[in-house]
Design a protein that fits this description.
2 copies of one chain form a homodimer. By secondary structure, chain A is α/β, with parallel strands linked by helices. The first copy, chain A, has a domain at 127-387: Aspartate Aminotransferase, domain 2 (3-Layer(aba) Sandwich), CATH 3.40.640.10. Helices cover 37% and strands 13% of the residues of chain A. The first copy, chain A, is built from 16 helices and 14 strands. In chain A, strands 3-9-8-7-6-4-5 form a 7-stranded mixed sheet, with helices on both faces. Chain A has a 4-stranded antiparallel sheet with strand order 10-11-14-13. Chains A and B meet through helix 4, helix 5, helix 6, strand 3 and helix 7 of A and helix 4, helix 5, helix 6, strand 3 and helix 7 of B.
Chain lengths: 486, 486
């Protein structure tokens, strides 16, 4: 295997490396112990305090020593972090401008006096929303609401869809006075609590609360033993990669899935009509599954045809990582989605929505905290940084460079590595063979490169937006070693 | 009506007033404009930026000018805040020790580098949990997990209950390999997604996400148009106040409700067995409805009799406001609850649970953020303050003083004011007559006293733990004026 990616990145490369150096304190990974190391292990076995998650716990972090793309663990191992707290830190660790913001008196007052945001917002809040969330709305969506996490964002988006659907059905915002709906809803009974559904896809992940979990179909560990709504589930296209090589069979697979979507809408019409469709632009937790832009355009058309809502869940794909601010901007939709939900790198959860979805009564969609306005200060500053440093474009270029390298590694390890796929920096690759993925993943970690895993045999890259070709070189180098070790 | 409450508070009074003065910058309300004033109104009508909540919006706040028990609004009105952001600020506004904490480097690193807490916690996290949440566990509960808001806390508590129930039923943590449960849960079908239920009460409020909303029965505006699980709903006792005067009829009412609880458990056994009971110690949103300690003890016994979980939702009652850290400590339970959920004044959501409820597989209960560790720094400091200033006891004494004053007002306005009820500072009173409650509430606001409302005719007091007899005097004085004006 010949490493080529050190010398042939397009002209912007040196600029990108400089950007990365500004953010980073470290220039390369440095591993002192096995990971998790002794200090992580000591902490792991403290009683009670790990909140029942020892099974999910990787290691403990020293956040004060971490910087930019490099995460330092409790044992002083310096790791190039390509996972960024499950894709939730857009600018890596301890960004200086965000740290400076933490020292600001106004920021601290916003943080400490956390309001009941829907009822007693701070006087600067409308402008703050304009300067943050409304700087980057998905095309065509003018409305926005915040929530505390991704699951709550999708739960409330579904509620907005149900409310919109019923408003449409009865031709007015609320039922007439004395309608049976008022009384029955208090008892969870029809017609006040209608039998409606959200159509989701095999392999989807939209959250773990009871409503969103009914649309999540990634792994049994997430769902087992939890009651669920009986809602329709369509197959998500199982495409062959590289997409450009398998165009016609992939198109057939997508057509099959779309046909089933329509069948399900018709089938559910008699038991729990489909009020909305929810989909991720790239199924993340489910295995980094892609579909073509045409698939999504046709799906949007189906929603229009049946007059049901079309929600794009951009909790993981949002905020520039795919090379556009919102991943669905790649699709070239003629009609925008009705709802786009977000969380993770946006610092706060919530969703954008169309004027048609907008509800007009207070307390219909509500929560004591409704997210947290201090997070919008982080978002506002981050948007400024992303724009001024052209990081959306950098995500695309660096992602292309990573994909090129992954495909070269595929050629070198054809029996092992396959199906490299990505959009911008949102990349994944699959490693075949029993336990091979976990072995490579662990080997990478012990070489100082932290990646995520998804599906049964994929590793996923969710680096910060400051990830540069220099970081890609390190990753590919270590991955080459890890593949060689299998 | 003779005001008596200015001169007869027990001996600790001057001490309490001094405490309040330390926290407050203002000594009395000062109202310059009608509320909401012109500056609140200007902001209210900015397009898009109020997040669809104009119907729930009261006014805009100037948090930087607010201090202790006094909230300053956008029009520079100084309000004595007896609602504290829907009961979510334990020490009022801009507490100096918490502000100092915001300036601390370690705090800022914890805040900015928000981790995926279940997988990559900070190295100080176990100790931080010990020093905050595990300093104040409900008696008998050793385990704790954090979540981002109250709704998510209850959603995940219900999941823990379902998992515990199924573990019990099959006699082991997970189904055997190849069990049908693994495959069916991915499709939302039995046996993997079992038909189980949570029993809740009329008038309850446990959240607004689809699972918790199925246990919320406060107002139609919360529930209308949203699909719900068909779960059993028992009547919550409708008691007559004062409780000590109506003992025998109240006891009969409670016996009636408990009998229906058992009937429902038996009835649901064939369609969706009850895995747990959830109840608030005082129904808050539903109208500040109390029940006797004996009622709760008997309810706990019923849960034991049928071997189902008993969850106490202390999202609003928790953290000292009732005169004990947890309201259910008043009950004298022989067997602790299985789960106690919290949020609001605890700064972060989550729930405590028993060793029996504890699950042992990673990712069973999980979320990317799982709350936020920086909030535990606020909690840790607040616990220190509450303990060193003896604020739990102060909540009891000041609450007793408030109740005494409310009952004196009842005597002065017998046709108007009734059913004053409370536990510590967690107090409410009812105002009879069409629209009278809203009129009094608005009058109080325009005199500079902010209270909450609940149910159809109640106002509720949810002041900070620094609320003192001197503040009570102001409230009673203004309430007297408002009642006079009706």
């Amino acid at each position: 295997f010949q490493r080529l990616y050190n010398s042939n990145f397009p002209g912007v490369r040196s600029q990108h490396s400089a950007t990365a150096s500004q953010g980073d304190k470290y220039t390369r990974p440095a591993v002192k112990t096995e990971i998790p190391g002794p200090k992580s292990k000591v902490r792991q076995y403290r009683p009670r305090a790990i909140m029942c998650n020892t099974g999910a716990l990787s290691f403990f972090c020293d956040f004060e020593q971490s910087k930019g793309n490099y995460l330092v663990d409790a044992d002083e191992n310096v790791l190039l972090d390509c996972f960024q707290q499950i894709s939730s830190l857009p600018l890596g660790y301890n960004n200086q401008e965000l740290l400076d913001l933490c020292k600001n008196d106004h920021f601290q007052a916003t943080l400490l006096n956390r309001p009941a945001l829907g009822t007693f917002p701070g006087l600067g809040f409308p402008q703050l929303v304009e300067d943050s969330l409304l700087r980057v709305p998905p095309p065509g969506l003018n409305q926005v609401i915040t929530m505390a996490c991704g699951s709550c964002s999708n739960e409330n988006a579904y509620k907005a869809i149900f409310m919109w659907y019923m408003k449409k059905k009865r031709g007015q915002e609320m039922p007439v006075l004395d309608d049976l709906a008022y009384e029955t809803c208090m008892k969870n009974q029809v017609p006040g609590s209608p039998k409606l559904s959200i159509l989701s896809f095999d392999g989807a992940f939209h959250g773990r609360t009871l409503g969103t979990l009914s649309t999540t179909h990634s792994k049994p560990i997430h769902k087992l033993d939890i009651p669920a709504f009986d809602w329709p589930i369509a197959p998500f296209p199982r495409l062959k990669y590289p997409l450009e090589v398998h165009e016609s069979e992939n198109a057939a697979e997508e057509a099959r899935c779309l046909e089933i979507v329509e069948d399900l809408i018709n089938e559910w019409n008699t038991k729990a009509p489909v009020a909305g469709i929810v989909i991720e632009p790239i199924q993340a937790e489910g295995g980094d599954n892609h579909a073509s832009c045409e698939f999504f355009r046709k799906l949007r058309d189906i929603a229009l045809k049946y007059d049901i809502a079309f929600q794009v869940d951009e909790v993981q794909t949002g905020m520039a990582i795919t090379g556009k601010w919102w991943a669905h901007e790649h699709w070239g939709l003629e009609t925008p989605p009705d709802i786009v939900s977000f969380a993770k790198k946006m610092f706060v959860g919530g969703f954008y929505f169309s004027d048609a979805i907008r509800w007009n009564m207070g307390y219909r969609i509500y929560n004591t905290w409704m997210g947290e306005p201090s997070k919008l200060h982080f978002l506002k500053k981050t948007i400024e940084i992303v724009n001024s440093q052209n990081l959306v474009n950098q995500a695309q270029l660096t992602g292309d460079y990573l994909m090129k390298g992954l495909k070269e590694l595929e050629s070198a390890y054809p029996a092992l590595l396959n199906s490299s796929r990505g959009q911008g920096l949102f990349c994944a690759t699959s490693i075949s063979g029993d336990g091979a993925r976990d072995k490579v993943s662990k080997d990478l970690l012990n070489q100082g490169v932290l990646v995520g895993s998804c599906g049964n045999e994929s590793i996923r890259f969710r680096p910060s937006l400051l990830f540069s070709p220099a970081h890609v070189d390190i990753v590919l180098d270590k991955l080459n070693v890890a593949l060689n070790n299998v």
